[in-house]
Amino acid sequence: MADDGMLLNFAIGDSVIKPEAKFKGGRWRDRLTAKKRSQHHPNPNADPSKHGESKNPNHIQVPSTRPAKRQRTSDDAPGGGRSRGQHQPSQRKNPNDFVSSLFTKNPEAQNAIEPKTSELVEDAKPTNAPLIDGLDTFTNLGLSPNLAAHLLTKLELKAPTGIQKSSISQLLKEDSDAFIQAETGSGKTLAYLLPLVQRIMALSKATKEAGVHRDSGLFAIILAPTRELCKQISVVLENLLRCANWIVCGTVIGGEKKKSEKARLRKGLNILVATPGRLADHLDNTQVLDVSNVRWLVLDEGDRLMELGFEEELKGIVNKLDARQRPSRTPGVPTRRTTVLCSATLKMNVQRLGEISLKDAVHIKANPEDGDEDTKNASDDGEENFRVPAQLKQSYAIVAAKLRLVSLTAYLKRTFIRKGSVMKAIVFVSCADEVDFLFEVFSRKHGQRREDTPEKEGEKKSDDEEKKDKDEREKLSPHGTIAPGTAFSNPSNPVILHRLHGSLPQHVRTATLNSFSKSTNASVMVCTDVASRGLDLPNVDLVIEYTPAFSSDDHTHRIGRTARLGRDGRACIFLQPGSEENYVEVLKRGYRDGGKALTRTDATEILKRGFGSTNGSNSKNWEEKATDWQMDVERWAMENPEYLEMARRAYQSHIRAYATHIAAERSIFNIKELHLGHLAKSFALRDRPGKINVPGLRASQEETKKDFKAARGGAGQKRKAGASDDGPSSTNADDAARRMRAKMREHMAGANEFNLA
To answer: CA 284, CA 482: separation in Å to the nearest integer?
Structure first.
């Protein structure tokens, strides 16, 4: 049957089927382009109602105009965008005009928020507080009345803690080796110092004629992993020995002058507190160090000693003490040496250290009944789970990489919004470069930029104002490690900012730590793990882990700086969305209730509390304030080359440190999942990660020490040379001229086959 063109069962409505237009002539590409244009772009003069049904048969409402496409700029980070409510201009008029992408394309948390139970959770009783039973006193434990009265009247210690009760009674009765294990903040330092002092005081009674004095010899050595911990042990020991001033103690640590240490050893010591490296050096090179009478050896923070690579030094120290031991002339001195090992965890490296130093050791715990429970709760890798004090309230915050810096600022602003709520806080980071960067960010004045200074308008800042600002900084700290925390201070509650890391000279570290400990005002210390072990810093109410620790051991010791000796405390750790959320399961292992007391928050809640308005009138006000603060920090970094290099160096060091997590936790902290572009924004950087490069290495501790000496002695040298502040000194000019003349004499010294004209 021929096709007659008849259509059956088709409703064509009022429209008329038009034949398809045919294009002839020209090239085939031109014909194809014209054909597509006719199909997709109908006649603009035609009635749009005639084509509405064919284009939108389902009657879906669509916008009449297409939104304008945003122009791409070089400042946009990979994966970044615009902030809410802000529009990108077509052309940048001012190179200092930035568009923030703080709240766009941030990854969301993978794990859902656990529903809160309606049951009221009672506050847990402190597990490291002094015993309240009236029968447990220092006198009942076997200490002398003189020492017990000194603890009560001078040190204001009324009752011992659980670990002090167990260790004192054990170490006073027997001379066997011991391993002391207790949670952080339970008083392990006094647990081994009190029996030690008591035993040496008993030697004085045994020798009625001459007694024990500094010429009697060295009886005890205490080894600690860090210089700060050695200083703290020495201070506690000096306070104890005020009731027995004939017993002399001293320290030998790295960073000090060996000449003064040799003079101290030559005068004579009875108790020595030292770091392993410096003690091994003195055993090899200092003849006046006599260890033949040493009968007590204490290894504090044994796991940290092994982690820092002191295994060989410890082996050498133990072997030399065994080889040089001689019968003592002092009556009452034990015939064999007693070794005490202290640690909060029982790990494989601690067991290896015990095999090196301990023989038939007694395991001492605060509560002997905890042994069976610890065995049940042991992890799969054979190591015991870590316990934190029960009264410590810990939380974790899921914060995207771009929001890390503003979230930390908002958290600290909220923390110190009211005077007296929090006295001291510690912020732990992974590397020294990040400490320096955060210190400069938090101590700068908000909104202070080069274009705002009066110098641009032709006005010069007066010398009095510059001198006033400089004197204000030097009054707080002549070393530049203490400054006002302007980023989170308010007029009613000013906050003092401190920084501490291992690259600083030893005298600067000691001065900064003492200032933070003795401060009576609200204070924040930004530091590395150099301050995470054993330090008893008073009135620390909050610990913030801005970057997670390299291992769960370090995490336990970090948060152990608060909630000490029965006091309350809070801790918060920042985690990024993704694989880092699995670290919550590691945090839950440290709690006796399975982590029910562990709370969660997110960046939105932190920013609302920190940057939001108090009256709640504008819900979007916190976004604008957070964006303005972030953009101001970025401008500050871009306009100051010194701080820009500091930010870049901190960014690189942070990434390198992120890759050094232990193997067991490397799947949680996977460096391949880091968004480097988003992470760069948390360091106030607007460059692409490929362009962020800092030549050279970080200055070593010796170089930093030389810089401090040069800065301290520069003014005096200028005054001696008669140089003014307006130009270079004459001494430098004379040196340059002398070097130039020497170089000319070298080239013109004589004729040879190479310089004959």
So the answer is: 39
Q: Kindly report, residue by residue over 161-214, the tens digit of the pLDDT.
A: 999 999 999 999 888 899 998 888 888 999 999 999 999 998 877 665 557 889
Of 527, 516, 444, 544, give the one whose Cα is nearest residue 486: 444
Question: Can you tell me the distance from the alpha carbon of 573 to that of 584, in angstroms, rounded to the nearest whole number?
Answer: 10
Determine whether 582 is exposed, middle or buried from the number of CB atoms within 10 Å of its CB (0-12, 13-18, 19+): middle
Question: Does 317 score more than 50 pLDDT?
Answer: yes
Reply yes or no on whether the pLDDT at 295 is more than 90: yes
b/e 441-468 (16+ beta carbons within 10 angstroms → b): bbbbeeeeeeeeeeeeeeeeeeeeeeee
pLDDT > 70 fraction of the chain, expressed in percent and rounded: 69
Q: What is the distance in angstroms between the CA of the first residue and the CA of the last residue of the chain?
A: 111
Its pTM stands at: 0.76
How far from chain centre, in Å, is Cα 36? 62
Share of the chain above pLDDT 90, in %: 46
CA distances to 146, 247, 328 from 207, in Å = 18, 14, 13
Which stretches of 286-400 are DSSP H helices?
A: 302-307, 311-324, 348-357, 370-376
Distance CA 741, CA 737 (A): 6
**Which residues, including other chains, have CB under 8 Å from residue 310's CB and lie 6 or more apart?**
225, 276, 277
Give the residue from 551, 582, 570, 545 showing the smallest Cα distance to 434.
545
The CA distance from 495 to 485, in Å, is 5
Give the closest residue to 644 by CA, choosing from 440, 480, 388: 440
Domains present along the chain, CATH in parentheses: 162-376 (3.40.50.300), 392-448+485-691 (3.40.50.300), 701-747 (no CATH)
Q: Residue 395: in which H helix or E strand, if any?
A: strand 392-398
Report residue 184 as tokens: 């952080």
Rounded to whole angstroms, the Cα distance separating 605 from 537 reads: 30
Q: Report the C-alpha gap between 554 and 532 in whole angstroms.
A: 7
* Phi, psi of 275, rounded to the nearest 5 degrees: -95, 150
CA dihedral 127, 133, 134, 139 (to 10 degrees): -60
Query: Could you give the CA distance from residue 189 to residue 233 in angstroms, rounded to a whole number?
Result: 7
